[in-house]
Amino acid sequence: MVARDLHPAASTVYVGQTPVGRSTFTLIAGPCAVESYDQAMIATKAAKAAGATILRGDVFKPRTSPYSFQGLGEEGLEILQECRRETGLPIVVEIVDVSHVQHVAEVADCIRVGTRNAQNFELLKECGLTNKPVMLKRGLAMTIDEWLQAAEYVAQRGNSDIILCERGIRTFEPATRNTLDLAGMAVAQHESHLPVIVDPSHAVGKRHLVAPMALAAVAAGADAVMIDVHHDPEHALCDGPQALLPEEIDDLGRRMAAVAAAVGRG
Amino acid sequence: MVARDLHPAASTVYVGQTPVGRSTFTLIAGPCAVESYDQAMIATKAAKAAGATILRGDVFKPRTSPYSFQGLGEEGLEILQECRRETGLPIVVEIVDVSHVQHVAEVADCIRVGTRNAQNFELLKECGLTNKPVMLKRGLAMTIDEWLQAAEYVAQRGNSDIILCERGIRTFEPATRNTLDLAGMAVAQHESHLPVIVDPSHAVGKRHLVAPMALAAVAAGADAVMIDVHHDPEHALCDGPQALLPEEIDDLGRRMAAVAAAVGRG
Amino acid sequence: MVARDLHPAASTVYVGQTPVGRSTFTLIAGPCAVESYDQAMIATKAAKAAGATILRGDVFKPRTSPYSFQGLGEEGLEILQECRRETGLPIVVEIVDVSHVQHVAEVADCIRVGTRNAQNFELLKECGLTNKPVMLKRGLAMTIDEWLQAAEYVAQRGNSDIILCERGIRTFEPATRNTLDLAGMAVAQHESHLPVIVDPSHAVGKRHLVAPMALAAVAAGADAVMIDVHHDPEHALCDGPQALLPEEIDDLGRRMAAVAAAVGRG
Amino acid sequence: MVARDLHPAASTVYVGQTPVGRSTFTLIAGPCAVESYDQAMIATKAAKAAGATILRGDVFKPRTSPYSFQGLGEEGLEILQECRRETGLPIVVEIVDVSHVQHVAEVADCIRVGTRNAQNFELLKECGLTNKPVMLKRGLAMTIDEWLQAAEYVAQRGNSDIILCERGIRTFEPATRNTLDLAGMAVAQHESHLPVIVDPSHAVGKRHLVAPMALAAVAAGADAVMIDVHHDPEHALCDGPQALLPEEIDDLGRRMAAVAAAVGRG
User: Fold this and answer.
1) Minimum Cα–Cα distance from D152: chain C residue
2) How many cross-chain Cβ pairs, B to C, lie less than 8 Å apart?
3) Contacts of A among chains (3+ CB pairs under 8 A)
4) What does each C-alpha distance from C130 to C97, C107, C153, D63 come to in angstroms?
5) Which of A205, A218, B80, C198 has the fewest beta carbons under 10 Å from its own?
6) Minimal CA–CA distance to D59: which of D99, D31, D38, D90?
């Protein structure tokens, strides 16, 4: 159901009123994790000022260690809704458990399945029962073929508003957190009709590499780019080293727009 | 809580009455998926005859494609209990969703978290609330350090009866389904006090490679080896190409016992 | 000697009269292998028309199988010189054996060490004794740190005119020939003062992916991009599936120039 | 020429008088690098006492950094010959450059092509022109199919006395130097008629993992195992952390013999 063969035209998926698809280019930005009202609002306003039309922000964090910050949960959801009210930006939020899916889907404009849950098939099936778009990140060791089959679990239950998100795969190279597979993004666009976007922040894990990879993603034809923003990365509770400062996302927003124009993407 | 530093002595975990730990060697065998009463019983009896003291068999199958066989569910659980009644072998069963955990933990002697759920932290936490041993497979792209941290999610909730299972990692080599990382097994035994076992069947994915890798695992000091058995692999509903025939597991059981004796494992 | 610490300013390396460095953007194009005078000349003229200022073309081909086409050798070198005479483009040629290095270095404007020889230290040392620029491709399984140390073998012998070339690393993903590591390119630019370029053709191995990855490389800040061209890819003796047709490189040249301008590169 | 299809029976290759093949099990041991007469002789005697019937020892070391110890060269060859005279053990020595091949082949009983040169086709061709056995290590990122094709370069020139050596592949796991692919060894034995051996020392890079992996290799059916020995690893000039002490190789020799007997290998 997600393959090109039976559905040759590329799909556009709407997150709130914002289209994500081949006919436009979209910036998604915001805090990696919601930590407080003030922190989230600063990031949200910086995202909007930089041209973002979708807000990211997580409240349930699947962390490698159980001793790391696990997210604000319900309180975080309230903060995100407040950010939406103030700025009008639709919100995308990660869900990590079947029991949260329906509730988060009511509140958020798009629900996201993270890398570590990319083959959590029960979660995918539950997402397929909602009426909100589902953003599906590629697993760390997932082939593109497996990624599309995971999307099929969502589509099969009746929800084909799916956005694929490339965010780096695991390789032998230790200099970056993961290896951003931009060609994999292009392959997924070729094999499926779904929008495919790129998250350079989680792929590289280092601030100074986010901008070149974001620009590369735009030039390669990504349907959207998703960026972490934090006003005080050194004190961030999650993934500070990869977050852009408000002034950095602002600068990058301008440069992405120039590249988007150069490759004929509005 | 799973690290050696604070718990220098190796732990033994009991599955039913069967010990799994450094002082013994244990064979776990049975069907990959339970398909029918007859199929499961043939595999169970072959497993027992070959020296297995724990029965494996799955009823919920997390398959890459939603169009593949997904398991018999509750009916399969009934069949496994029947197999246990007939042979006395304790059973280990994969769980794939938080909502099943408590129920399966009541029925089974050990619950298993599969490769694709190895960083499904909500599932791990729920397993930590049961009073049955938890077998935790290594994720396809999981470092050993991440594997131990995933085990920590279980232990932190109060259940430290954890068995780690190496089952191959994803690499560039296409000749085998995955690359069995036996040194990774040895590292996990060194870094943690938990028993560490090996599943050669799912690692290699090809029948003729299962025996050499099972023998290698025993020689390397694995605390147990887990093997798929099927009487008619060509018609198996799941992973037939890697299943051993009853006569093959019988022969392998003898050879594993010889190697276990040679390395001083009862 | 190649690290930034001791040499903070980025270096520019001249291939013939063509600069390769941070202050400009350079297109390198031409045939993968020289097959005949006509084939090479068509590719050379297409490369020049598309904006290339350096010509690539190989005459010694290190092929995985000994039964594949191994290159025209000396005859191929004559053809390349002919192409240079006609178009004025300087030429870069792969060397594969210590015994060829001095001879090829006399004829060519830049010598190239290929992926499979990236840690052939005797070859690197010999290149360090020439007075021509050395293009060093990254090995398939080479970390960036190892790549820079390989460059050090060249520099240590007295030749610091070195150009690094990212061309994809080996990962588990089978959809592309290799995984283009554009962030690795950016890391190499950050860690070393050497120019770092990208070869999307050999990285992806599929024609339709070359253009998006070439554009991505430009946007990410690559100092040059190197592209295979062939007028009849189906009958190419080497790597036909990744070669662009003359009209395709022409179109891509224009699009790369637009992206280069958008990111402030000449 | 190396494939099973045309040569169904497994080959035995003789290094000096020592057979390497499916009908026996062989221990190869000695110093990683020859550093001095005394160091080499201690390692050689320890190797022989432990049951080794072939001596390893290198005099040309292809090191990642040009600032590391590069080997004793000709002086080291003299020392190795002295070790052979005293103990009667045939010697295997790495060659790294085409210009050395004929000379080393005259002196040594077996020449070895290392991991970093595994696709240095000029070197392979030159080895094919000697009349000594060639040990071909698997490249860090080489598929088994590519490994066999590299062996074909040697065989095609007339020398089919080739021994394949698995020594770990590069993966994402940082806990070991490389990931020992024992199943890859078994696949190579299945696909080719050549003897296939295992070097656990270079695969794992850590002393305490060498013994379990050596035992695993024997159990899996490796035709030989090759082990580094050093009497003072902390002061070794190369790869000290993986070298076994004389008493450790002695103990391991006994345990390998027991496992070899258990799997029916003399």
Assistant:
1) C66
2) 6
3) B, C, D
4) 14, 12, 13, 22
5) A205
6) D31
Residue partners of C96: CB distance under 8 A and separation at least 6? C60, C62, C114, C117, C123, D121, D122
Beta carbons of D122 and C153 less than 8 Å apart: no
Cβ atoms within 10 Å of D5's Cβ, excluding its own: 8
Q: β-pairing, C224-228 with A18-20? A: unpaired
Percent of chain D with pLDDT over 90: 93
The pTM of the full predicted model, rounded to 2 decimals, is 0.96
In angstroms, the CA B2 to CA A130 distance is: 38
Three state DSSP letters for C151-207: HHHHHHCCCCCEEEEECCECCCCCCCCCECCHHHHHHHHHHECCCEEECHHHHHCCH
DSSP 8-state code for residue A239: -
Write a three-state SS string for D91-102.
EEEEECCHHHHH
- Tell me whether residues D171 and A172 touch, CB distance under 8 A: yes
CA–chain centroid gap for A251, Å, is: 20
Name the average pLDDT for chain A: 96
Flag whether residue B139 sits within 8 Å of chain A, measured between CB atoms: yes
Question: Residue A154 — φ and ψ, nearest 5°?
Answer: -70, -50
Tokens of A138: 């590629």
Cβ atoms of residues C176 and C201 within 8 Å:
no
pLDDT confidence of residue B266: 72
For residue C6, pLDDT over 90 is answered with no
Alpha-carbon distance of D128 to C66, in angstroms, equals: 12
Residue C109 pLDDT: 98
pLDDT digits (tens, 9 = 90+) for D29-56: 999 999 999 999 999 999 999 999 999 9
C-beta of residue B179 within 8 angstroms of C-beta of residue D179: yes
What's the mean pLDDT in D242-259? 97
Report how far residue B171's alpha carbon sits from residue C204's, in angstroms, rounded to the nearest whole number. Answer: 18
Q: What are the chain B neighbours of A122 within 8 Å (beta carbons)?
A: 96-97
> In which element (H, E) is residue B185 found?
helix B182-191
Residues C89-113 have a mean pLDDT of 96
β-pairing, B13-15 vs B18-20, is antiparallel
Length of chain C as a residue count: 266
Tokens of B163: 């068995």
| pLDDT value of position A146 | 97
All residues of chain C having their beta carbon less than 8 Å from the beta carbon of residue A175 are: 143-145, 183-184, 187
pLDDT by residue (tens digit) across C104-129? 999 999 999 999 999 999 999 999 99
Tell me the CA end-to-end span of chain B in Å, nearest whole number.
Answer: 28
Nearest-by-CA chain B residue for A156: B66
Is B152 within 8 Å of A62 when comparing Cβ atoms? no
The residue type of A242 is Q
Query: Model confidence over D135-176: pLDDT tens digits?
Result: 999 999 999 999 999 999 999 999 999 999 999 999 999 999
C110-113 vs A162-166, strand pairing mode: unpaired
* Sole residue written with tokens 């064979």: B27
Among C172, C176, C178, the residue to mutate for chain B (most B Cβ within 10 A): C172
Alpha carbon A87 to chain centroid, angstroms = 19
Nearest to B173 by CA among A173, D117, C173: C173
The residue with tokens 């253009």 is C211
Mean pLDDT of C234-252: 96
Whether pLDDT at C266 is above 80: no
Q: Do A172 and C141 make contact, defined as CB atoms within 8 angstroms? A: yes
A145/chain D closest Cα distance in angstroms: 21
Mean of the pLDDT values across residues D201-210? 97
Average pLDDT over residues C31-49: 97
D222: left (phi over 0), alpha (psi -120 to 50) or beta: beta
